[in-house]
Amino acid sequence: GQNIDQPTEMTATEGAIVQINCTYQTSGFNGLFWYQQHAGEAPTFLSYNVLDGLEEKGRFSSFLSRSKGYSYLLLKELQMKDSASYLCAVKDSNYQLIWGAGTKLIIKP
Amino acid sequence: SAVISQKPSRDICQRGTSLTIQCQVDSQVTMMFWYRQQPGQSLTLIATANQGSEATYESGFVIDKFPISRPNLTFSTLTVSNMSPEDSSIYLCSVDGGEGTEAFFGQGTRLTVV
Questions:
Q1: Is some CB atom of chain A closer than 8 A to the CB atom of B92?
Q2: Average pLDDT of each block of 10 consecutive residues along chain B (114 residues)?
Q3: Omega before B8 cis (within 30°)?
Q4: What's the Cα-to-Cα distance from B11 to each of B22, B69, B95, B112, rounded to whole Å?
Q5: What phi and psi values does residue A69 have, to the nearest 5 degrees?
Q6: Are A33 and B45 an interchain contact pair (Cβ–Cβ within 8 Å)?
């Protein structure tokens, strides 16, 4: 079966750095996506990785290792507004999105 | 990119009734996706809506409970039929931006069944 694992919940301090990990086992791979979702809202796109390496976008970076089936999302200079759920999703060989359960990130002052 | 207008944004419904959710996309798309997100859970794909053919349902979801219409390439509806409290969820429609691009979502419909 297809599976995506990420921690259920993480806590970090305002101004700090946090890394959210995602491991996946899917039938094929056509890209990995990270989304942010605030409570009661739709997911919003953060980043996309299809090749190994690091993609940087402002305070957010995402890393991919296809050989290890592993990705992480790195959030720097954390702000209170970063409190949200972070969803990892992989497009499989049929280009269907497989979603992780999401990581709830709690930012403390 | 694609902009999706989804409505209603929220509703409170009596058990046994039905609710139809609409999604309008600002461009023509081949496939539209309908998701359910139960409290504290991730997104679960209900079905894929194709224009001109019947929707393709995922395991655990059936047409009688979640009928879908797709009359043209910019519009789709999902009906939640004969609702029970277990149907209380956020329902989301989505389109795929294509290879190498992200999926786009409607604003979501927060459904509470009492």
A1: yes
A2: 93 97 94 91 91 90 96 95 96 86 91 96
A3: yes
A4: 13, 20, 23, 6
A5: 60, 50
A6: no
